[in-house]
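Provenance and format

Records in this collection were gathered into a single text stream. Each protein contributes a sequence line and a token line. The two records reproduced below are adjacent in the stream.
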Amino acid sequence: MTNTLSRLLKSRDWLLADGATGTNLFNMGLSSGEPPEMWNVEHPDRIAKLYGFAVEAGSDLFLTNSFGGNAARLKLHNAQGRVRELNRIAAEIGRNVADKAGRPVAVCGSVGPTGEIFAPMGTLTHELAVEIFHEQAEGLKEGGADVLWVETISAPEEYKAAAEAAKLAGMEWCGTMSFDTAGRTMMGVTSAQMAALVEKLPNPPLAFGANCGVGAADLMRTLMGFVATGTERPLIAKGNAGIPKYHDGHIHYDGTPELMGDYACLARDAGATIIGGCCGTMPVHLKAMHEALSTRPRGPRPSLEEIAAKLGAFSSASDGTGDDEGGPTRERKGRRRG
């Protein structure tokens, strides 16, 4: 059985994904610390509006409001017993929006990290991680998601567990990691190591790549690392809208629509097939990205110098695949995609 995303990948040489979840929901009234997944039940109209932002901007796919919808995350809000319900409704709302789009739009069931650390450093086992992800996957499948979209993963063990869960649910999937610590994930994975990991999976993803991280320039460098491995699988680039800045008590991302349009075309020319935004990416950014991808001709693969000139300097001296000395590091604990 084929799904909408598989068909789109076969018929198009680039696809536009969606933008931020958290940033847009905060603008609709979501409070800090409030689990967005509850809005699937409490404010389904706002979640439909969130999905509609992407469709109206020209996106070919959007992610469901279920990033933290696993039992480990929902337990923090005493909602671990509502995993299947919250994920099913997240996908049902998305299915309704996509089916009314008048063109093929894929509903991708967002699956974020558990937030737990694997044994022996932590208590999470492979079997438990698979169980957690499988429960979430079944809810998304029941609600009508086309594929699972595993994102913002740092640990290879968690990526493998999510892959196994997708297989148990009988769903195809895509999977991204977040490279935000001098070109590596928080658990030390490089772009080359992720590409190798994907090839060893018994059920590899439809597409893989990177999301979130530091800024668009750093994500582009990670993308170039994937390309350098010679992988022939479709690549995903879902970068933040610039760098977060603290201003008047709020976090703002400094990426302009123009910058995100440049980023989208650079990502396409570098080898990405699915291109979207992560934290800070608003409808205005998505519209600029769609316009740029639709009107600018494909160019040669950009150099790192060209990427830095257009998108800003890299945050570290290395992309993690070579000598890591000399670059600053940043740590992040599996944050929700903003």
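Adjacent record:
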Amino acid sequence: MPAIRSVQPGYYRIPLPTALTDSTHGVMRDFELLTVRVTDADGAEGVGYSYTVGRNGGAIHDVLAREIAELVAGEDADRIEFLWNRLWWDLHYGGRGGPTVLALSAFDMALWDLKAKRAGQPLWKLLGGNDPKVPCYAGGIDLYLPLDDLLKQTEGNLAKGFRAIKMKVGRKLLSEDVERIAAMRRHLGDGFPLMVDANMKWTADEAIRAARAFQPYDLTWLEEPISPDDVAGHARVVREGGLPIAAGENLRTLWEFRHLIASGGVTFPEPDVTNCGGITSFMKIAHLAEAFNLPVTSHGAHDVTVHLLAAAPNRSFLEAHGFGLERFIARPLQIEDGFAIAPDDPGHGIEFDWQGLETVRA
């Protein structure tokens, strides 16, 4: 039995080279990185992580250090479903969502990394294996970039090998969003995959109006047009807006995804492995989407999520965007002609520069 010997959390604040802004979260100057290293009795180690856009990192770290470490000490690291359910219910009363689920997500990721390393397999194969080449898009946080800078950013992403692009919408005037989308469509040409992301900016009526205004530009999807809690509104936007809708990065449970999917409120379910309950929950969400004949996409943590989409037959696009983490990992995501390549190293393959991270410890 690979008994859990230690759970070592880490808490870091990674400054961004340039402050980023979207329609809801305001100005983001740094990201909080929460890591966890799980070591078993044989000395093997699995690594997991979560992140925030600048707040609540201390609460997540405390859940890992004070609660999870105590609850799992000495347990069998291979019993991932058992440990997931134990932590969910033991922490449920004070933590159904929020920082607790982000902490659980990081811990669950570490268990899967450890399990794959012990098996000598890359994570995507351990999870079933489908196709290591996953379509990938570059997600920019660029709402207030001047148009010329937006197009320059796009050119930079094309030079990196991306063959699909996402841009932010949700400016004060809808006409400004339309103008920027039209310019991007002209720049990229017909048929090039282009997504837009509103970051929960609008009401359902506003989102429907925006979706109809965006229809001429052949968008792959409109992402997070309204609050994630407005399930009925999502269903209205899908029915009346005339565009595919991606949503889910702010949902925290399998059951929230079930409600949104069954209500007809999403076209591209979009879990984030760092906040939806980890790899265990992400794969259940992917299979739930498959049962409804829906493609699954992703948000965040692209270095890990490439494995998960590589294991899912209904995968669509992997999102890739840099939060400054690349300089602290050994091998950043590999992009080849529009595809992210799931690595063949045992586990998820992320190797953090722990010494470098010490310089940004929170």
